[in-house]
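S.,

Sequence below, as promised.
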Amino acid sequence: MSDEVGGVSYAAAGVDIAAGERAVELMKAKVARSRRPEVVDEASGFAGLFDASALTRYERPLLATSTDGVGTKVMIAQALDRHDTIGLDLVAMVVDDLVVCGAEPLFLTDYIACGKVVPERIAAIVGGVAEGCRIAGCALLGGETAEHPGAMGPDEYDLAGAGTGVVEASRLLGPDRVRPGDVVLGLASSGLHSNGYSLVRHIVKAAGLSLADEIPELGRTLGEELLEPTRIYARDCLALADAVEVHAFAHITGGGLAANLARSLPPTVDAVLDRGSWTPPPIFEVLAGHGKVPQAEMDKTFNMGVGMCAIVAADAADAALAVLRERGVPAWVLGEIVAGTGQARL
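The prediction came back faster than expected:
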């Protein structure tokens, strides 16, 4: 039966197709800014197309893939009603995993589930994804927005993404290249990035804090700090690998510095890190203090100011730091690789 005679409709069930179509129109210009020349315009409307003939310049191209989300950081964006940066976090979590093996990110697709499609909000989220793709050098090739009334509140949403990259087989980075004598470089994070927010929200609630609170140590509100976008390292890491002898990268996400760095080590070496070589940003001390969180718990939950590690040949360390400095990425000598059993030791 039709709406005109009082019958049941999709809209009555809470799904607004027209709002979805308006959201698509609002985001088109932003998505276009992430375009790469390999994107094929004659797509079906159901799938994005990427011209794989671009891979013929590789002798043995290896495709790399990664998928991720941004966890409960979305709840901070929702609480502040600010949605233009959370997409940057999504891209960072995906492409910075890809680049660890030396892969150049080619394209990304996103998925947004929400309780109600508010076109301007969806466009802001996707606009952030598109801007992140532009920064990373990959195309936002497609995506999906799904309205789930009843399963999610009208102001709730979650997002995820999947990316594909390519690396020449002979230039694949990873544990097999790491050896004693290598130097570990730390690349500074922009803050919490997108991990540990369940603990963050617990601390905020237990300590009676508000996202609107001005925190002197931070120089801004707590909400502004917690919503700081994740740094996107992809192009910086690729430039570094082109310029100097890089053996491995490690993306420091959930689990902290030691656990993530260990994933990039062979079982015959350890990474010995110097905790005194850097000072974590103030947000970590603020959280530890208000939450009375032990150092060991902080270390295994947060990046503590190190968002990415690069393991380079000893004689390449100075040149590597110079490359990163020129690219505006704060970096320093974090430690060294010694004979061991595959552990990262702080």
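Confidence is low (pLDDT under 50) at residues 1-5.

Coffee later?
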